[in-house]
Amino acid sequence: MKEIELYLKNRRLTVELADTLPRKAKGLMFRKKLESGKGMLFVFKKNQSIPIWMFGMRIPIDIIWINSAKEVVHIERDVEPCTSMHCPIMKSQTPSQYVLEVNAGLSNELGLTINELVSFNLI
What we know:
- By secondary structure, this protein is mostly beta strands.
- It has a single domain (3-118), classed as Sandwich (Jelly Rolls).
- 9% of the residues lie in helices and 44% in strands.
- It is built from two helices and nine strands.
- It has helices at residues 21-26, 106-110; strands at 3-8, 11-18, 38-48, 52-53, 61-66, 72-79, 89-90, 96-103, 118-120.
- Strands 6-5-8-3-2-1-9 form a seven-stranded mixed sheet. Strands 4-7 form a two-stranded antiparallel sheet.
- Helix 1 links the parallel strand 2 (11-18) and strand 3 (38-48).
């Protein structure tokens, strides 16, 4: 899977790109852990409503929606795994082009807020 470097409040993360339909569908499902400093960036063609479903997740995560200007528009913190078919669907009220999934607690640790800029380059 392709990886890029992403900067979130001056913290460098190595993130996998979920830029195809199969990668987006699988996401971080069934992973037993996510290494520190790692994450996954879901990439879409334009700003839109992007729902995230936690089915099959085994680890708690923070979910960060980012618009086309690379500004944080919504954060769901400490989202717990869901093993039933009735998992809640989360989405931002503000359209976004990217969704970043990282270990639970990172957004609080960094003091991440809405309108923060995220830095990355897609090659």
